[in-house]
Write a structure and sequence with these properties.
22 helices, disordered N terminus, 6-stranded antiparallel sheet, 22 strands, single chain, alpha+beta, 7-stranded mixed sheet
Amino acid sequence: MSKKLDSMNCCSHEAKETHSHSDQNGHDHEAQNESILKMFLPAIISFLLLVLGIYFDIYLSQSWFSGWARILWYSIAYLPVGFPVLKEALLSIKKGTIFSEFFLMSIATIGAFAIGEYPEGVAVMLFYSVGEIFQTLAVTRAKKNIKSLLDQRPDEVTLLDENNKVSKVKSETVQVGQIIQLKPGEKVGLDGILLSDFGSFNTAALTGESKPDTKKKEDVVLAGMINLTTVSLIKVTTVYSDSKLSKILEMVEEATSRKAPTELFIRKFAKVYTPIVVLLAVLICFLPVLFVPEYSFSQWLYRALIFLVISCPCALVISIPLGYFGGIGAASKNGILVKGSNFLDILAIIQNVVMDKTGTLTEGVFKVQDVVFKSELNKNEILKIVNALESQSTHPVATAIREFVGEVDRTIIFEEVEEIAGHGLRARTNNKEILVGNFKLLDKFSISYTIDPESIVYTTIAVAYDGLFVGYITIADSIKEDAFDAIKKLKDLGIQTTMLSGDKNTVVQFVAQKLNIKNAFGNLLPEDKVNKVKEILATKQTVAFVGDGVNDAPVVALSSAGIAMGGLGSDATIETADIVIQDDRPSKIPMAIAIGKQTKKIVWQNIILAFSVKAIVLVLGAGGLATMWEAVFADVGVALLAILNAVRIQKMKF
């Protein structure tokens, strides 16, 4: 279809390629207006000549306006809109595609000329061409909306060299480790780490969220964010082509090539449908000679031509992809990246949403809640040792302990440091053994304790020193503020929710109770999560899995639709996922499903509208009760109505 649009409206590319840089806005607007005028100019010329010809025919009869002069006039009126279609029909035939839309319109309009219906022949081609222009503009706008929402990368950045001198350089020339300077109002050109003490950024281009995001020193900032406050310094961590925004753009470009089953079916249907329609038109023209006593060739040819015009599948072929374009655009506008129209269809029929806990429903930022040590021990000394040992690990728990205790005491020396997978850390200091981890670690080294670990709600870090149980530290992860709303909306949509986590079961059940989730399972390894999803899939139900960690990648790939939390999520999960939520907000999960459902609803409305109107007018046309004007409405009119319906989704609020 894109080839068709390009060939008939060569100037449409100018509109499609207009840039969004502020210093070019005026020029771009003028270029776009000029482009649209060029697109409509042939139709305007044809329309004026057609109206004048009809005026001569009906209201102001002219003696010279007859015979060859009249034929020539209407032929000249026909050529501006008819020539591109005739040319495309010939090119399609040369390439082996005989029964195209161009072929149908060419036969119908040339046939109208053959039986002397010159004004109708011009009118059919004129309205068809105008419909095609509107279709081109609608598709161009949908594509441009998606691109403008995401393509926020500045071409140049301000580079700060070793001598603190600034210079403007191309973004793609900046290397990892170099420092860029960002003034208030400027966009971040490359992913990096904030070197300034703090900064406030508008992240709407990436997340759809207009609320400013405050960053502190060493926080990650991404290409596309806008600096709102003071001058900021950023240390580049990824080159231009590898930035998260670049990957998002690649995903969006690929999204338009991944077709939904409905879209693929309509394309295949059109290839079979068009030859059948041509055969039926031939039968309508010639078969009545066997049954109709007063058979008139011109009368039945006219009916056959009406049949051809009505049956042109334009409304279906263009409005359905446009509906999916609109759905992808609406999702992008809200910070949800859908990697293909096929995934919008899947979202529309999701029955189960299975979610990871940490980083999906909770913040993924742990904080120490309580320290319960035996009273006879020096609590501060033990905490310093625990903090020093945990500093050897990159686990979020270590960060929580460091924030609670303070700076690591580097005078504490460890020997025989050992990290035991799934248990915790073991080391020796001052010739005494220190164990920091879960209670399974204490069991492994036969350390006795008198408490029941399952009675503690929060994540628990057990500590043993010199062969004796010291006590424990509780750590909790706060629930995201919109998590409860997300679960409620999913239930309102009739979707079953399940929470899976590798965290201890008491913590999982506590969070599940807070969020009103009935199905929740803890103490799970990655393979356990896979098995849980397989169990649901075995019941022939659709499953969307939402996760953020690298260990979620296998289960994301397995599910009917994999959803990744894109802000904090790992690259592996984001690349594996079918849908990416840019701002990590769980409320975007029901929103994505609602967009999928609305897109599918609009697509089917268009299919039913097109088939219903065409079927009615086809029957009327075959029976001689419909003229070319009804045929034009059944083709171009329905196509325009379908387009207007399809673009509606881009204006909706979810």
